[in-house]
Design brief:
single chain; alpha/beta; Rossmann fold; 2 domains; 7-stranded mixed beta sheet; 11 helices; 7 strands
Length: 225
């Protein structure tokens, strides 16, 4: 998501953070994220624009609780290939999508730059190889995966899409669940599957107050490489 869009759409929970929290981010994360910030932005706009980064790295438990109450629509999981050799989950978080790849692949790798979220994932799914990395520069050989996935992580970013294609084997599948701007992918020839929006499971009120109305993933775009 572009910085301006992220700042404009920041959920109410951005007020939970202060500008000083940006300095608490790991050095590499802070440098990576501040590189997206246009010159002259106010401290408030920076906090708003980096809301999700602050949550992932400084308050991972909140994100994990959100993901637990925004389950992926079963129809989208059913649309993924039944069996592959190697599967990759990019921006895996605490494993909301990863868990569904485990029974479908001989090998599952998860890329997640947040140390706390990656630790949660590794503890829950020890068979998954969890690594630190950024979507636009992943530490894998070209064509390493038969299925490359992400959930709620990316939109039509050229650098990220190029990297997703690079690590996916010829004949493999790239599948993005709840991507930003799914209509863009559809216009580019990706197969789009939309399911009716379903209400989230019963949950604590603070989740809505912090993140805004919950919206379980119900969009999928896929393309063959």
């Amino acid at each position: 998501m572009e910085f301006d869009e992220a700042a404009d759409q920041a959920p109410p929970g951005w007020r939970h953070f202060a500008f000083e929290d940006v300095a608490r981010l790991p050095d590499a994360v802070r440098a990576h994220e501040l590189a997206r910030v246009p010159p002259g932005e106010s401290q408030e706009r920076i906090v708003r624009g980096l809301f999700w980064t602050l949550v992932y790295h400084l308050d991972a438990g909140r994100w994990d609780e959100l993901a637990r109450h925004e389950p992926i629509a079963p129809e989208l999981i059913a649309a993924l290939p039944d069996r592959v050799g190697a599967a990759l989950d990019v921006g895996a978080g605490s494993g909301r999508l990863t868990q569904h790849l485990v029974p479908r692949a001989n090998k599952v790798v998860a890329v997640e730059p947040s140390d706390p979220l990656r630790a949660l994932l590794a503890t829950r799914y020890p068979a998954v190889h969890a690594v630190s990395g950024w979507a636009e520069a992943m530490p894998f050989a070209a064509g390493a995966f038969d299925l490359t996935t992400a959930c709620g992580a990316f939109g039509p970013d050229p650098a990220v899409l190029a990297e997703l294609h690079r690590v996916t084997a010829s004949g493999g599948i790239i599948a993005l669940i709840s991507p930003e701007h799914p209509e863009w992918f559809e216009a580019q020839g990706w197969k789009r599957i939309s399911t009716p929006s379903s209400p989230p499971p019963e949950h604590a009120q603070w989740l809505d107050e912090f993140f805004g109305p919950l919206d379980p993933p119900h969009e999928l775009v896929m393309t063959a490489v």
